[in-house]
From TrEMBL:
Residues 7-324 form the Acyltransferase domain. The chain crosses the membrane at residues 7-25, 37-56, 68-89, 117-138, 145-162, 168-188, 200-218, 245-266, 273-292, 304-328. GO terms for molecular function: acyltransferase activity, transferring groups other than amino-acyl groups. Keywords: Membrane, Transmembrane, Transmembrane helix. It comes from the Bacteria. This is Acyltransferase 3 domain-containing protein. The lineage of its organism: Bacteria, Bacillati, Bacillota, Bacilli, Lactobacillales.
Amino acid sequence: MSKKRIEWIDVAKAVGIVAVVFGHAMTRHGTMFHFLYWWHMPIFFIMGGFFLKPIVNNDWIGFFKKRIFPLLVSYFICGGLLIMVSHFVRGESWSYTLFYFVRLAYGGRTLNHYLSVFWYINVYLLALLFTSIVITYVKNREAQIIVAFISLIVSTSYKHIYFLSYKYLPWDFDVAFIAMFFMLFGYLYFHKIQEFVKDFWVIIPATIFTFWAFWMQHMDRFNFAFFLKSKIIHASYHHIAISRISYITFIPIIVCLVVFSASYYFCKFFPQFVIKPIQLVGQQTLGIMYLHKAVIDIVDEAGYQSAILETILALIISFALSLFYAFIKSKVKNSLHKAVS
């Protein structure tokens, strides 16, 4: 593992993916369910902006080869495999299965069952592209911040846009502008975040606020629902509706800062033999993201309804399959390299 990796970021990714899996395994949509959805997707978009850089000399071909194309390949390979697994496990017809490949290309909210989380990679790729365009051509930092807020305000100002006969845009195109807000935040404030995670004057108030918001949600005095995929956003306090933008702007970011800080201090005080396995999970979040929903659904169909058991099994199996995929991918690359040589 590269020495340049920042340990607490990998740990934060691991915490985020555990939250995603647990959220999908839960059947009771109570306080904890809503709390997880406040931040478990925004945290990945924020971290996606940490190491972004403007495109030098307009080398967009290099950008696509390095950042976009590998994710596209994994999207279609994993998606295709899961469509076939779903066909045999769920007993779907061939017409349904073949049309699902069309839905895989269309992406977004048309995907369900084993592929219901694949919207994330659609939105992530689009947000990556949009954010890279902004930081490349909008040089002024203040202007970048304005763009981030405009994208958030416009993209949350309506419920749906119809495209042809579908209720939703291909690849959840409009959701990508909400994701871009978080990705730009990660890009613009990464250095500040590195300072904040160590600063008790920031983290203690943020932690207190997080616990307060969780308790207020539990007591039904505070109501914040933030489901990024479906753009379902509710915001009220004491049943008085307030600005959804203010909730989206502050609550996910504050909770993410608490997670980042907890990850930082975990890495600071725990020994390496404890940190490394969690860090390795954080490095396989994409594979786990792709595969965990299929595992949860299969375990569900087998008659096991425990959210904790489903979460553990989904993490272990998805993690193992992700490592296996990485191993096969490296073998294929090495073979191709030797053949070319």
